[in-house]
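Weekly modeling sync, notes
Attendees: AB, CL, MP (scribe)

Item 1: holo prediction request
CL wants a bound-state model with S-adenosylmethionine before deciding which constructs to order. AB pointed out that an apo prediction alone won't tell us much about the pocket. Agreed to run with the ligand included and paste results into these notes for async review.

Input as submitted:
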Amino acid sequence: MKDSWSRRGGRADGSKISGEEPVIQESSGFQATGVPGGTASDAGSHDAEDAEATRRDASPAESTRASRGWWDRNADEYQSEHGAFLGDDRFVWGPEGLDEEDARLLGPAGALAGRDVLEIGAGAAQCSRWLAAQGARPVALDLSHRQLQHALRIGAPFPLVEADASVLPFADGSFDLACSAYGAIPFVADPGQVLREVRRVLRPGGRFVFSVTHPIRWAFPDEPGPEGLSVASSYFDRTPYVEQDERGRAVYVEHHRTLGDRVRDVVGAGFRLTDLVEPEWPVWNDSDWGGWSPLRGALIPGTAVFVCDRD
Ligand SMILES: C[S@@+](CC[C@H](N)C(=O)[O-])C[C@H]1O[C@@H](n2cnc3c(N)ncnc32)[C@H](O)[C@@H]1O
C-alpha cells in the first residue's frame, strides 16, 4: 500500500455508520456531470484487502473508475476511523493536523465571508462546514456518492456535487477560492487537467490551495515505525501504485509526482505558486494515520500544501 490520506486508513472491519441512509439531493442548483470510466460496480468487486499491490501504468479512465469504486466501498470505514480526528467542522490539511483556523492559507480571518469556495474531493465535507461557519459559500464536490452521503449524515447546508474533478460542472469564473485536502489530486493520472479546470472556474484574483502526500514519502515504505525510515525505492519512479483484482482490474490507484513535477503542473496550468507549506509534526499529535506517525513526522515531511494564485 502506498501512503495517501486514504489507504492509510487501515483494515476494513465491515463496520457501518449507524442511522438512516441519507440520499444525495439535487437541490444544489448544480448539475452533477457523468463520470468518465463507468460505474462503481465496474471497478471490481473485491476490497483492497483481497487485491494485489503493484506498480504499473493506469490510464485516467481506469484511475477514476478505481477511485470511485474504492471510495464508495470504503467511505464508511474512513469516516468511522478518522472522523474524530477530522472533526465534523474542522478544516485539517493532513495527518499532521495543520488546521486552516491557524494556517490561514486561504486568506486572513474575516476574509472568507461572502466568498464562493469550491472544495474538491471533499469527502464528508468537513472543510466546507468550517468554511460555512466563516461566512463563506462553499460547494463540496466529490466523485464518491458514499462520501457525500456522509456529508449529508453530518449535515450540509450547502450544495454537494457528485462529479469528477477533471471535468468540473461549473461555468468559468464561478468561484473566488478553491481548496482540496488530499482530495482527487493524488488519485488522478493527469493532475494538470484538474489544475486547469480549477483555474477555469476561479475568478481573476482567485486562489487554490491543495494538499497531497509529500512526494519524498514515495521513496520510503508506507510504515509508521522504523521500517518506514529507510529508502526502499526511487523517488524518481513515477509508476503509479495500483491495487488490482484477480482479473488485473485496478481497484485502487495513486499517482506519484515529484516536487518538481507538481510545481510544473501548477505553473503549467497558469497559476502562480505563492507558497509551498511542509507542515511539521506538532508535539500535541500522538496519533498514527497509516504510514504517518510522530516518529516519521519528526524526521521527514509527510504533507505538501501548495498555495496557487490566479492572477
Ligand atoms: C483522502 S480523501 C480526502 C477527503 C477529505 N478532503 C478529507 O480530508 O477527509 C480523498 C477524496 O478524494 C475523492 N476523489 C478521488 N478522486 C476524485 C476525483 N477524480 N474527483 C473528485 N473526487 C475524487 C475521493 O472520493 C475521496 O473522498
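Recorded for review: Residues 8-46 have pLDDT under 50 and may be disordered.
Action items: CL to compare against the apo run; MP to circulate these notes.
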